[in-house]
Structures are given as structure tokens and as C-alpha cells.
Amino acid sequence: MSNAPAGDVARSTVRPHGETGGSAPLRTYLRTADGVRIDFVYDPRPVVYEAPDGRGTAPDTSPPPPVDPVFVVAHGFTGDVDRPHVRRIAAALGRYGAVLTFSFRGHGRSGGHSTVGDREVLDLAAAVAFARERGHTRVVTVGFSMGGSVVLRHAALHPGAADAVVSVSAPARWYYRGTAPMRRLHWLVTRPAGRLVGRYGFRTRIHGKEWDPVPLSPVEAVPRIAPTPLLIVHGDRDGYFPLDHPRMLAAAAGEHGELWLEPGMGHAEHAAGDALLARIGDWAVSRAG
Q1: DSSP-derived pairing of the beta strands 37-43 and 8-10
Q2: What does the pLDDT read at residue 116?
Q3: pTM of the predicted model, to two decimals?
Q4: Neighbour tally for 58: CB within 10 Å
Q5: Would the CA dihedral through 5, 13, 141, 74 be positive or negative?
Q6: CA distance 131 to 162
Q7: I need a surface site. Which of 23, 36, 141, 168 has the fewest CB within 10 A?
Q8: Contacting residues for 148 by C-beta, under 8 A, at least 6 apart
Q9: Whole-number Å distance between alpha carbons of 86 and 105
Q10: Is 16 helix (H, G, I), strand (E, B) or coil?
């Protein structure tokens, strides 16, 4: 196990879109504080400049300066950086700034095993550290479902690491089994047969041990986030977590948090439409300083 600090970047030449200069996306690996290798894609927003003859803009082929804000996107359980819904989120937020997406431990090409929201905070911390090392001065963390709980806990445990936090479809408390989808998820996580389904059916390798100690819950984390701007987004047709979850989070946030209850919206990335993502982008640009 590596002892490299969060944000240490493993050497790699993998770049999915060919060129390495200008504003081409970079794909490589990060190393977390506990030594897990995390697959990530960094997408700088295209940079343009005024042509010398004044006839408009042209692509700048030199290495671009960092574009702020940068959105660090934390996906939901069983997602990964290559899932179409994650790429769609990245494309939508890319209209407002640079975007860094990554696969949580145990997901996709990343190493390790999923701890379902516990040590995933270290994965997000490594991604945020990378963004800072690239020169970004405004970082917005945006998480969905499990990722929504991770961005809340990260902001509480690493004060000032993010300049704004957006949590979409997140639980307020652990061990919730009040809906059929959550009962199925608990079977997937807690039973050996479920973990086999997770590995081979969802490309998600799940840690077989229970939490010890139980991590800080999202609702316990939220009061510690202030004064960092916080946005809580939840659909009124979420089949996983009913509306008492976002309302608990909003109550814990007090005046420093905003709550958007979205009519007709279901759960997480799949349910986040382009109009909502545009509103999130506008909110982040206005709140991140």
C-alpha cells in the first residue's frame, strides 16, 4: 500500500481524446492518501483568444490557464467515469467551467473496494487536491446519491477545500431501508451473493466488512460546512430517499444552505435534466466566489 498523499498523480499516458496539448482532456490516475489508485478524467473548458487582426476568436493551442470554477463530480453507487450519465453531467457542467470526473474506489477502472460512502471521502479529497494543483482557485464539488453524501462529508472534514458544494439526491442518515430500492441495495452490499452481483453485474467491487467505526453521517456533517455555500437538490419522486431526507439536511444546514425540491424528478444523475444542470451551473458560478 502506498503512503503517497492525497492528490499524488500516478504516471500514465492514457488520454482518451488524442492530443495532449491545449485544452484536450487528460485521463490518468490519482493516488489517494490510503494508497488507492483512482481513475479520473480532467476536462479543461476550451479557451479562445481574440485574433490579432480583430476578426474574431480562434482556438488557443498553447496550454490553457485554469478556467474557474472547476466542477469535481462525485457519481452515485455503481457509477463510474465512463457511464453515459456521468459523461452527460460532465458535458452540461462543462459549459460553466472545467470538469473533473472520477471513478470511486471499487468502481470501473479504479482500484480498491467500495466502502459505500466512508473512505470515498479520500477519493474526492485526492481529486480536489489535483484541481488545486492545476491552479484552480474556485472548486465546486457536485455529488449524486452516494456521491452526494460524500461531498457533504468531505466539506465537513476538510473545511475550505471546496468553495461551493452541491448535493443531489443524497441520504440524510445511514442504514435507511424504507424503500424497495434501498432494501435491494442493502442486499447487494451486505450479502456475499449480492456482492457477486455487484462485481459482475455492475462493475462494482464492494468491501465485505461493516463500518467500524460508523462514519459521520450526512446530517451530522452539514452543520460543519458553513460558511461554504451549500445547495441541496432532491426530486419529489425520488424512489430511494423520500423527502424527509433533504428536509433533514436543509434543517441541519440552517440559513447557509439552499434546498431545491424538484417537481417530477426521480433519483440522482439519471433524473437530472439539462435544465436543472444549467441552474446548478449558474448557482455554482454565482456562489463559488
Answers
A1: unpaired
A2: 96
A3: 0.86
A4: 11
A5: negative
A6: 10
A7: 23
A8: 74, 76, 167, 168, 169, 170, 171, 218, 268
A9: 16
A10: coil
Percentage of the chain modeled with pLDDT above 70? 85
| Residue at grid coordinates 483512482 | 38
Task: List Cβ neighbours of 90 (8 Å cut-off, separation of 6 or more).
Answer: 41, 43, 71, 73, 99, 101
Contacts of residue 12, defined as CB under 8 A and 6 or more positions apart, other chains included, come to: 27, 28, 29
How many residues are listed for the chain in this entry?
A: 289
Which amino acid belongs to residue 96? Y
- 34, exposed or middle or buried, with CB in 10 Å at 0-12, 13-18, 19+? middle
* Single-letter residue type at 56: G
Q: Please, which residues have CB within 8 angstroms of residue 269's CB and are 6 or more apart in sequence?
A: 75, 76, 79, 83, 85, 86, 88, 89, 144, 145, 168
Q: Which three cell numbers stand for residue 132?
A: 488545486
Per the listing, cell 474506489 goes with 105
45, pLDDT greater than 80: no
- Give the integer Cα–Cα distance in Å for 178 and 229: 30
Give the Cα separation of 227 and 215 in Å (integer).
22
Q: Which amino acid is at 54?
A: G
> Comparing C-alpha atoms, which of 218, 286, 220, 222 is closest to residue 257?
222
Q: In three state form, how does the secondary structure of 146-212 look?
A: HHHHHHHHHHHHCCCCCCEEEEECCCCCCCCCCCHHHHHHHHHHHCHHHHHHHHHHHCECECCCCCC
Confidence of residue 24 (pLDDT cuts 50, 70, 90): confident
